[in-house]
Structure formats: C-alpha cells, structure tokens
Amino acid sequence: MLAADVKLFWSLEEERSSYNQDDIIPDSYTELIINVGAPCTLETDSGKVIALPRAYLNPLQTRPLRFRTQGFIQIISMRVYPWAVRPLLNVDTDSSDTHIIALDGAWQRYAEYLMRTAHQFGYEEAIQRLQEYVCERAYRTTHDVSPIRAAGHLLRKSQGQLRMSELAAHCYLSTSQFERRFKHYTAVSPKTYARLIRFEAVRNALMFNPGRRPVELAHEFGYSDQAHFIHDFKAFAACTPGEFALQAQANFDSAEIARWWAA
C-alpha cells in the first residue's frame, strides 16, 4: 500500500557523544521521526535551542541541521518521498521558521505508545505497528498526486538532470502549472528538488570514494563547470566537496581501525 510513496522504515540507536558530533546533511526525502529515546533538541543558526516533540516531520532540508540528544538516542523513522506527505499524513509541508513540523496530539500520544512498544518488544514490532498506523490514516482525502509522483521518480532516475519543460510535458501540464503543483506538495520548487537529488548523488559518491576528483564529479553529474559544482555543493553542505571528502576519509579510517582492533 505504501510502496509508491515510502522509501523505507528505519531505526537508530547511538550514544550521545557520537550522535552530537555531526550535523544532519540535506537529502531528497522527508522524514517522519518518532523519538523513543532520550529528549532531543534542534540548535538553530541563531543559537536558539528548541525542544523537539516525540513525533515530528523533518521536511526537505536545504542546509545542515544540528540535532542534539540529551542521552542515548533511539529513533524510529519513515522515510517518505516529499510529494507524499499530504496524501499519507494530511500534513502541510510548508516549512516553519524552525524547519521542523511538530505533529498533532494524536501523533504525540501514539509516539508514547511506540516508545513503550519498542522498549518492551523491540524495534521490529514497533515499526510494524507504525506501518499499520500510517496505513489507517493514509489517503483519507483525495489528492491528484500521480503526475507529481511520476515526475519525482523521473528526476530521481536521472539524478536530477532533466529539464523542467520535459517533466511538465510528461505530466501533461504547462511549466507554470507543473511548478505550482509540485511546490504545493513538496514545499520546494522542482528545480530545488532536482538540485537536492544531484547533491545527494554527489554526496554518496564522495562517501564511498573520497578520492574522487572534483572535475570528474562535475562532469559525471552534469554541472556546467567545476566552480558551479563546488558552489552548489557548499550551498547544501556548508562545506566544500574537498572538506566533505576529508571528513568522509577520516570516518572511513576510524571504522577500519575499529574493525582491526575488534579482529
């Protein structure tokens, strides 16, 4: 029932010391987050610290976010394609000033139930019950999201390298109609979404092979030149591709050392 609109369900456990070291980098998904562990906060660019509820949405990011936990982090999440938030959850996807969208009281009560379920029966059971709860609430109102869904998957297949006019034509819409409808469901323009998809692809390439040369990446992912590639990457990651690659290499080396000692 959810396969066309939900990428996956996942869970996370992590110690405070390691979780709080890193920022969350943008990608091309919206996350439904259910916190079943220690309380968490969001640190804004202005220095304000915002307490997060048990159940919230992290919509499409265009900059890194600093989530911090006060103890042992335990999360259950549903990773959703951004056009599906309204049809699945009947939630307005427009970002607030704090970026995070707190869900209503029914969701907060259900998050408390999932926390007890996870602690008593484990994550697999909690995720199963979350899926059932989403299925009960999904598609209660009519949304003509099929054209936007198809366009979104085409963008993903091309790694963000399709023209907007091509996507609009595929949806049998004018370019302006397509852009309005896409933004209504995702809260971002199709061009911004295409940039996010392309950034995510480059980020993944650097994570798995930090030694890739910027000029090669710029050519592979369709950037007009290396300067444009570096500028676009820095806009989303708040660091250059080279800086990101160095950190990815350091993380890889640390993991290798840990496996060596474990052996």
Write a concise keyword list for the protein shown above.
alpha+beta, Jelly Rolls, globular, disordered C terminus, 2 domains, five-stranded antiparallel β-sheet, three-stranded antiparallel β-sheet, 50% helix, Arc Repressor Mutant, subunit A
Give a written overview of the molecule.
50% of the residues lie in helices and 15% in strands. By secondary structure, it is of the alpha+beta class. The strands form 2 sheets. Strands 1-7-2-5-8 form a 5-stranded antiparallel beta sheet. Strands 4-3-6 form a 3-stranded antiparallel beta sheet, with no helix packed on it. A hairpin with a 5-residue loop joins strand 3 and strand 4.
Task: Characterize this entry briefly.
The protein is α+β, with helices and mostly antiparallel strands and 263 residues long. It has helices at 16-19, 85-89, 105-121, 123-137, 146-157, 164-170, 175-186, 190-208, 214-220, 226-237, 241-262; strands spanning 6-14, 30-35, 40-43, 49-51, 55-58, 66-69, 73-80, 101-102.
How many domain modules? 2
What is the level-2 CATH architecture name of the largest domain? Answer: Sandwich
- CATH class of the largest domain reads Mainly Beta
Number of helices: 11
Q: How would the global form be characterised?
A: globular
- In what order do the strands lie side by side in the largest sheet? 1-7-2-5-8
